[in-house]
Amino acid sequence: MSTTDSSFRPFSDTSVDPPVRGFLTHPEGPVQNGLVLTHGAGGNSRGRLLAALGTAFAADGFAVLRCDLPFRQNRPYGPPRPGDAARDREGLKNAVRALRQLGTARIFLGGQSYGGRQATMLGADEPGVTEGLLLLSYPLHPPGRSERPRTEHLPRLTIPALFVQGTRDPFASIEEMEAALKLIPGKTSLLTVEGVGHDLGFKGKQRVNELPAAIRQNLLKFFGLLPVAA
Prior knowledge:
It contains six helices and eight strands. By secondary structure, the protein is α/β, with parallel strands linked by helices. It has one domain (about 5-75, about 85-220): Alpha/Beta hydrolase fold, catalytic domain (Rossmann fold, 3-Layer(aba) Sandwich), CATH 3.40.50.1820. The protein has an eight-stranded mixed beta sheet, with helices on both faces. The longest helix is centred in the middle third of the chain and has 16 residues, at about 85-100.
């Protein structure tokens, strides 16, 4: 099964509050798995990494929904405000529900940076929302402020979580991530990406071509979704 970025069509569900808006692909044939992907504080659902991951997972038969968080729907530019987080988590929950209503049995929730942190907080509070998490460039602390770790909710995270972190990410070193993952009672795995920062090599027109396939393969293995023969 193959797909291209052009196969992603605009998606909108305004029957819920916050509404769900973004891009969806629903491959032909039976679909057992779904993936919701969302962006970081400075991005949106059109981000190059999210688009590349969407294409990679859709090629494996996933229904993929790349969604804009509510703060981004309200403001096309700029970071979220302190009061946005709770509503952004509700937006993620609505996105998962929208994808599940399309007939997708297993839903995985993925987020980059801020979006990933909100996904972990949602998973800690409501573990039944998703079957597992994909966290890209987790913002463990502000750059240069390792004394302020954002770990309060991690001891309540019981659902499986795959983390993807660059070795030059100023928001968390690999050693800091390994220590943080020990706080999580659920099953975890850490995929390190050598020589890249918080953007995981997707900055401007740059891209690490092999990364989306590597993330896809690691997720399939981590969640036991590979064919038996593999």
